[in-house]
Amino acid sequence: IINNNVKAGPSFPVRALWFVFIGWWLAAIWAFIGYSLCLTVLGLPIGLLMLNRLPGVLTLRPPTIQTQVSYNSSSQVVITNGTRPQHNMLLRAVYFIFIGSWLSGLWIALAYSLAILIVTLPLTIMMFDRIPAILTLRRN
To answer: CA angle, corner 56, sides to 53 and 62, nearest 5?
Structure first.
């Protein structure tokens, strides 16, 4: 049995107020700095870390924790907590070099262009939640 849980974070009204007053402009600065750092070899790890944390900066989204319940050979229950298993690091690196580096820039620009209209804000927030996956195939 696998269950994906989101850590208890701020309530929806607090997250909405954060987005309206702070999140949208702070995330723009955060994304610009993170994306700029990804263009340098030395700044790449910090830039990827920043862009992977972008959904939390934008909307205070807490990280997802995966709980797995299984039985071992002696019929004992084994419960493990952690993040979702990630793709192979070599695959993620090749994807980032050839696809993720430019596609994530386009994705961020499109997300911010949709943020202008109130009607498209849910789509914008969904797009920002997907940036780590588009950048490096990271699973949230």
So the answer is: 110
- Three-state SS sequence of 37-104: HHCCCCCHHHHHHHHHCHHHHHHCCCCEEEEEEEECCCCCEEEEEECCCCCCHHHHHHHHHHHHHHHH
In the structure encoding, which two tokens stand for residue 139, read together?
Answer: 């699973």
Distance CA(87)–CA(16), nearest Å, equals: 32
Strand order, beta sheet including 77-82: 2-6, 64-71, 77-82
Cα–Cα distance measured from residue 24 to residue 115, given in angstroms and rounded to the nearest whole number:
9
Over residues 59-80, the mean pLDDT reads 73
For residue range 38-55, what is the model confidence (pLDDT) as tens digits?
Answer: 888 899 889 888 988 888
Q: Which residue in 91, 131, 89 sits closest to 111, CA to CA?
A: 131
What's the pTM value of the predicted model, to 2 decimals? 0.70
- 48 with 38: CB under 8 angstroms? yes
